[in-house]
Amino acid sequence: MQFIDLEIQQKRIRTALDTRIREVLKHGQYIMGPEVARLEEALSRYTGTAHAVACSSGTDALLMALMAHEVSPGDAVFTTPFTFMATAEVISLLGATPVFVDIDPGTFNLDPDHLEHALDALAHGNPKQYPLPRTSAARALNPRGVIAVDLYGLPADYDRINALADKHGLFVLQDAAQSFGARRNGKMACAMATIGCTSFFPAKPLGGYGDGGMCFTDDPDLAQKLRSLRVHGQGSHKYENVRIGLNGRLDTLQAAILLAKFDVFPEELTLRQTVAGRYEDLLSGGGSPVVPPRIPGDCVSAWAQYTVVSREEDGRPTLQERLKKAGIPTAVYYPTPLHLQPAYAHLGYKPGDFPSSEDRARRVLSLPMHPYLSWEDQQTIAGAILG
Ligand SMILES: *Cc1c(COP(=O)(O)O)cnc(C)c1O
């Protein structure tokens, strides 16, 4: 059994993949070839956004989005500590400071109530109201934006996050690396914030065969900036540079592969709902040692991960061991919240600053999840969990 099985999908779309790859080899435009624009057009239509800018990874999508907002040293960007390092790393790369905000333990996503407390605390320079970076410069930080993360594929509460951001004049980025295809209140993931950023890392819901990412926005000025940033801050011609940018392009070959994968993506998303529904049926009994994820009524998750929470605070190692013995791969996303990572020691956060993130980091366990997971395999998995 595999945690994420990419071979079944490849068998299904092999002919289409071969055809698309052969076309690129034939026209030879390996950099910014026609497939890149075709992919941007298809995905902007799918997400209901006006502009899509393909780029080299989900991390670079976030970095370019912050650069488009001209984030710089002295700026504060609010985000969750219960995420992959990339979300906060890009803030630090630009010399700005991540200000962490705890999660809602039920959805694993940034809690808007906590965001409000953190905004107030920073405005008053008062870490007694809410834990703030304990750096000497923390008092003088200039609040600029929020990066909300759609963990495991479930969109964060953008209605409330956007309302708070509007009130304080902040931009909002949607880290939709795990949620491409998800929905909330009739909106698609990547269309819920100022800029939506996704990743095409192979294990993501729409994964390629290498690195890739995309930015989405309705704002034409931001879209134009993103396109310029992607190629070294290009101006009106190749050798005019109007800003500092990067080489953030998506390979044509990768775009061709993603076009073939996108053809089956809507159907795969439906299959993921079926798989998640079966897990729910199997694992939600009163005697179950785990709590299955709960999806709010107005949401459809992209189910990048199916993540359960151990009922017992220290029950996870036993569960992991039982599953391992039964030949079932599992994973922990993420064992250490970012505020406790050595790389962020300089921010001076302490254990206990974000109790929900710390609790979930101890208890979460992700089970095998992909569109082609069989009912039989799911019964085996549930059998090993229920003991
Ligand atoms: C995967 C991921 C990223 C980074 O994407 P890459 O394409 O690997 O750079 C960023 N944020 C989250 C939440 C992710 O899961």
List the helices and strands and how they pair.
Blueprint: H1 7-27, H2 34-47, E1 51-55, H3 58-68, E2 75-79, H4 86-93, E3 97-100, H5 112-123, E4 142-149, H6 158-168, E5 171-175, E6 183-184, E7 187-188, E8 195-199, E9 213-217, H7 220-230, H8 252-283, E10 290-291, E11 299-300, E12 306-310, H9 316-325, H10 355-363, E13 364-367, H11 375-386
Parallel strand pairs: 2-3, 2-4, 4-5, 5-8
Antiparallel strand pairs: 1-9, 6-7, 6-11, 8-9, 10-12, 12-13
Helix pairs in contact: 1-8, 2-8, 3-4, 3-7, 5-6, 8-11
What keywords describe this structure?
three-stranded antiparallel β-sheet; binds pyridoxal-5'-phosphate; alpha/beta
Describe the protein in words.
The relative contact order is 0.17. The chain has a seven-stranded mixed β-sheet with strand order 1-9-8-5-4-2-3, sandwiched between helices. The two termini are 19 Å apart. It has 387 residues and is an alpha/beta fold. The radius of gyration is 21 Å and the shape is globular. Helices cover 39% and strands 14% of the residues. Strand 2 (75-79), helix 4 (86-93) and strand 3 form a beta-alpha-beta unit. Bound molecules: pyridoxal-5'-phosphate. Pyridoxal-5'-phosphate (PLP) binds next to helix 3 and helix 4. Pyridoxal-5'-phosphate binds next to helix 3 and helix 4.
Can you describe this structure in just a few lines?
This protein is of the alpha/beta class and 387 residues long. Helix content is 39%, strand content 14%.
